[in-house]
């Protein structure tokens, strides 16, 4: 390389017209070196040799947990989304100190964390897989499995993520969408993570098996504005049903299904609900009101295959956000603690 650079310097001195070509060759060489030393990409067969049974081990653990409580499904799915949007899909949300203590994460159900921990234990008990599979990949696989177990599509999961070593409360600030967001705010946050408006709407469809707490939407049914008690975009009958479930003095932590029709089935009912004014959050209902997103909601409401296809594309792209691969990060033995160096 040094000799090559000296050659360039000599050509510059001589004013050789081929200097542009030479510089282009140098740039190509440097890029090639960088490409060879960069982190590996995610792949669908990443553990084919190192832990060939990884998917079966995770699936068995998830199925057992799912039989114990349905909350496993929405809790795991939400956990994956929160993890990817904060520091990238690196399982930093699973560390016992940091992100999970932020107000935006404090409501994450423990069943999601427990699902990953149980799957990790199953994997570590297989001698062929010990210290080879990241908690981040386990969370991605478990997410696919809970979607499928609730009636949603089965899709191949790209693997090869490594676990992050850092998790802080401060890193969560302004990283997650809020219930009162409008379409522009949603698009801006998702676009920052490389996701399109269609991706955002498809991922919002995960609310078909989601739940929320009364405190997250009570303003819409009791004190929407100085002149209007109930949000006018909310179906009035649905608003009264929500009032019955969440009276003013009830525990604000009570959980309410986000899909009142088929809350335990991963389907396109969420979008049909939006068409009827039954979106629990403002950020849900706006998808069916704003002209820029309404057509996509109508498509997903009328065509479940279109929704499932868009969801697979979107959650695959979500799983690539900020990943650590190659020599980055680590493989944790305990998903709740970074390794001690």
């Amino acid at each position: 390389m040094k000799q090559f650079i000296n050659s360039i310097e000599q050509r510059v001195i001589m004013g050789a017209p081929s200097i542009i070509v030479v510089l282009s060759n140098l740039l190509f060489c440097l890029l090639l070196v960088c490409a060879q030393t960069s982190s590996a990409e995610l792949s669908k067969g990443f553990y084919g040799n190192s832990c060939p049974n990884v998917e079966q081990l995770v699936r068995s653990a998830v199925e057992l947990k799912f039989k114990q409580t349905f909350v496993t499904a929405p809790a795991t799915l939400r956990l994956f989304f929160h993890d990817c949007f904060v520091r990238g899909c690196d399982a930093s949300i699973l560390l016992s100190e940091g992100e999970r203590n932020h107000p935006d994460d404090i409501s994450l159900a423990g069943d999601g964390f427990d699902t990953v921990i149980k799957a990790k234990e199953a994997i570590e008990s297989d001698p062929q897989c010990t210290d080879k599979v990241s908690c981040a990949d386990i969370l991605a696989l478990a997410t696919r499995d809970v979607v499928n177990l609730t009636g949603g599509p089965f899709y191949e999961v790209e693997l090869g993520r490594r676990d992050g070593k850092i998790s802080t409360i401060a890193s969560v600030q302004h990283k997650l969408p809020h219930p009162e967001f409008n379409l522009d705010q949603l698009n801006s946050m998702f676009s920052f993570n490389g996701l399109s408006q269609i991706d955002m709407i498809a991922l919002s469809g995960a609310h078909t098996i989601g739940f929320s707490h009364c405190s997250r939407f009570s303003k819409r049914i009791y004190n929407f504005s100085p002149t209007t008690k109930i949000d006018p975009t909310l179906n009035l009958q649905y608003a009264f049903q929500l009032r019955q479930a969440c009276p003013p003095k009830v525990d604000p932590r009570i959980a309410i299904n986000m899909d009142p029709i088929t809350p335990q089935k991963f389907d396109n009912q969420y979008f049909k609900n939006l068409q009827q004014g039954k979106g629990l959050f403002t950020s849900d209902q706006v998808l069916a009101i704003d002209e820029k997103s309404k057509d996509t909601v109508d498509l997903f409401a009328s065509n479940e295959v279109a929704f499932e296809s868009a969801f697979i594309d979107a959650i695959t792209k979500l799983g690539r956000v900020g990943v650590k691969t190659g020599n980055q990060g680590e493989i944790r033995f305990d998903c709740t603690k970074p390794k001690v160096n």
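The chain has a mean pLDDT of 89. Residues 61 and 280 are 31 Å apart (CA to CA).
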